Amino acid sequence: MPETPEQSAADRFDTVLIANRGEIAARIQRACRELGLKTVAICSEADRQAPYGKTADSFLCIGPSTAAKSYLNQDAILLAARLAGAGAIHPGYGFLSENAAFADAVEKAGLTFIGPTASSIATMGDKISAKRAMMMAGVPCVPGPDTALPDEPATIERIALEIGYPVIIKAAGGGGGRGMRVVPKADLLHEAIALTREEARKAFGSPSLYMEKFLEHPRHIEIQVICDDHGNAVWLGHRDCSMQRRHQKVVEEAPAAGIAPDIIQPVGLACAEACLQIGYRGVGTFEFLYEDGAFYFIEMNTRLQVEHPVTELTSGVDIVQAQIRAAQGHVLDLTQGDVTCEGHSFECRINAEDPETFLPSAGVVTHLALPAGPGIRVDTHIHAGYKVSPYYDSLIAKLIVHAPTRAEAMARMREALAGTEVEGISTNIPFLRALFEDGAFAQGETDIHYLEQWLKLRRAA
Ligand code: ADP
């Protein structure tokens, strides 16, 4: 008798190497253990004291503190997987999570990469090919061509006029909020292109650029998807991540406030359909700008995201477990009709940084008190005595709340923030407390520029 997908899935792997650090390494380890899988934790020299190292089945130091020599060292990670007998690698977010060459190397080593195929990562990692794939799949995109900008000045000018100023010039290989330039009017066009092209060449190794309409007051709304290897894809509702400083998300919520189901529904369905068209596997996020009632695709993240917990709390789906099960080859155990989103959730990113200057703050946590109670979740790897090192991202914890309504979730977050104490290092907690007292934020539907404007006003006061 031929094996069913469920029978063969169980054999695919029983040990997972977690190629990451910090809160997400702890989160993935929990998901693996709950699924009965063994874990291999890795660390750099700076992270030898990581608590998830103690609870892993194996714990290997793979290199020096600088990420380039440890968490980004593909050969060292593959060697660790071989030594520890791992059958799969979970890349988490950041580091190698969206590196198509790494996904390919993992599969070539006979291991499972817990994520989409290398070719999906490559298609979505190039913003022009991603836009083209989304346009073909019927996902609404920002007005502008799905091709790279040509060299002839006259053609470029014509494209800008057709789109209409202001336009934005973006690097096809850009990421992390870099490699973009807004052009308000025609006489600044060529200089902006020359500067962005040079930047793109240096930072992303490719001078390829494209142009699209610059939306002036959008919100950042994203859609979480999960797919299996058997032609099933569902979307798990939406999130609003408009509270950004320097294009970095600070607070996220689910669902996005004030968006009627009949407006979001077709977009969510188009995302799930697009996944099927491109043969996508695992979890992913479609990011959109939303302005005047319309959605415009900007990019797809082909990995687990920092803000996945707000969707977990509203949908009741354990996204990390679902991701691992999809990589094992299991059939998705929910259909679109099963997905219901209840209540409202907020996530605050707690960073080791000065609350006024936002400069990173390293050192030993001398005292830690974390909030607890109904509807409160804390994802973290730190404890009293933990040494926050200066080598990595400053995220030390995520504080997540869930309540029946947005107003109740805000009140719950205020209480949770009041009950969070971190001493020995500076954190952005005072800033988050002030933000959750803000009237316009409480009203909801603020745009992506709101936080920067709010900070400017606060400084001026
Ligand atoms: P990255 O990969 O660097 O994060 P994105 O394409 O996701 O780049 O864009 C990052 C941010 O830049 C968006 O959240 C938004 O704030 C801004 N942005 C990008 N494209 C546009 C656009 N067409 N109009 C207005 N703002 C944009």
TrEMBL record:
InterPro entries: ATP-grasp, BC-like_N, Biotin_carboxylase_complex, Biotin_carboxylation_dom, Biotin_COase_C, CPAse_ATP-bd, PreATP-grasp_dom_sf, Rudment_hybrid_motif. Keywords: ATP-binding, Biotin, Ligase, Nucleotide-binding. It holds the Pfam family Biotin_carb_C. It comes from the Bacteria. One of its GO terms (molecular function) is metal ion binding. Gene3D superfamilies: 3.40.50.20, 6.20.290.20, ATP-grasp fold, B domain. Residues 12-456 form the Biotin carboxylation domain. PROSITE patterns: ATP_GRASP, BC, CPSASE_1, CPSASE_2. Residues 131-328 form the ATP-grasp domain. Coiled coil: none annotated. This is Acetyl-CoA carboxylase biotin carboxylase subunit.
